[in-house]
Amino acid sequence: MDKVIIFDTTLRDGEQAAGGSLNLNEKLEIARQLEKLGVDIIEAGFPITSPGDFESVKLIAQEVRGSIICGLARANPNDIDRAWEAIEGAAYPRIHVFVSSSDIHLMHVLKKNRDEILQLTRDMVAWAKGYTDDIEFSPMDASRTEPAYLYQILQIAIEAGANTLNIPDTMGYAIPEEFGRLIDGIFQNVPGIEKTVVSVHCHNDLGLAVANSLEAVRRGVRQVECTINGIGERAGNASLEEVVMALKTRRDLFDLDTGIDTRQIYKTSRMVSELTGFSVQSNKAIVGANAFRHESGIHQDGVIKMPITFEIMDPKTVGIPSSSLVLGKLSGRHALRERLAELGYSLEDEDFNRVFRAFKELADKKKEVTDRDIESLVAEEQRTVSEVYHLDRIQVSCGDRGIPTASVVITGLGGEALSDAALGSGPVDAAFKAIDKIVKVPNTLTEFSIKSITEGIDAIGEVLCRIESDGVTYTGRGADTDIIVASAKAYVNALNRLLTAKK
Ligand code: KIV
Ligand code: ZN
Fold first, then answer.
1. Is the pLDDT assigned to residue 386 strictly greater than 80?
2. What's the CATH number where 416 sits?
3. Which end of the chain is more exposed for a tag (fewer CB within 10 A), N or C?
4. Nearest CA to ligand 1 atom 8
5. From the CB of 199, is ligand 1 less than 6 Å away?
């Protein structure tokens, strides 16, 4: 096969990451974008884990028709039944069954012996096969499993009907050369392996997830499991954009294609970061803010003369818009619409009008409105759609003498204006307390961070806050040139998400 199948697990392993919490609509929005990106398989979730996960997998299976939709299941009948129930409406359903195979896991987690695991594999892969022909099997912690035993379990999975065999480096423990040898061993020692697709699923604990995945591809693996921005358990998974762009940029070496429309990468990365609340580090390969930015004069000179001198990829191939045009307060509706289209947004008239009003307000405060500002405005406007409470006004007084005080006006669901005021240890504390007096939902603030999205003293500040209620985390975001306003917006956004989820 001259194609590498891209299996995206952003909505399962990625969402599993500490602090990640997406609601139903957000998962569907990401799934639709993944389909547009051209991923072959979307692992939409782990249906047995919660009713919310089940519902989102089911909805994605019904709505997203262009990719295979996969549901994860442990090797037991309840998990598999539930996974099938969630994905049976998909155009192309896949069940992914996993069981630990390393002695460490067998002894300390499953408390079963090797023979019991072999039997379980045979029975549960066959059970899943009773539902659909497309079955993937993963021996969890494969890279720390004795190879001879790994070959046995894979052979049994094939005999029972698995057609994709996934080799997870669950703990991100493997080193490329060693992982490559394991893959060679599998191809050489597992009868029937040639009839299957061999896949890898690498974690990034040692920062080697992409390197291990690519090494496996060099040895014949034809499916890579990955996530957008590399999000996932602990240090995350192999990053989709890095794997795909490595294959594309070094086609001379790999001679392999993927079905990915790379021009959708940047948009997908921004969307996942925005909705999960996991920001992308600025030096992150492919999608980081500095990935295509040249500071050194020698490099800048070279790029101007001939981009290939210091750029191995054209930023346009990953969908990073060329920012030759900077908008300002004289820019009109037409210019904004064009810029939005270049950034990949097509907004309904009503949404566009709101973004345009926000753009005009921003352009009054800020000389140059950049692409990042525009993305932030769109995100901010999208957050205000279907709000339970809307932050209407906020006023704070603070300093090193008086007691920080905040007064807020919030519009409730019925359109009524609700106002209150509070004192706090600082302006953000006072603002949150004033909001609490109106919204009255007990919660704990577990994370608060603020960052400027562009340079300059007039930049927009983006605030992320996470709150916890009944053991569930809700992420809120807010953006404004005034960081106290941005903080209050982020808090109201988190409360809205909490209230919507509880409803
Ligand atoms: O990391 C892992 O082993 C997994 C499996 C469920 C494939 O996520
Ligand atoms: Zn994993």
1. no
2. 3.30.160.270
3. C
4. 13
5. no
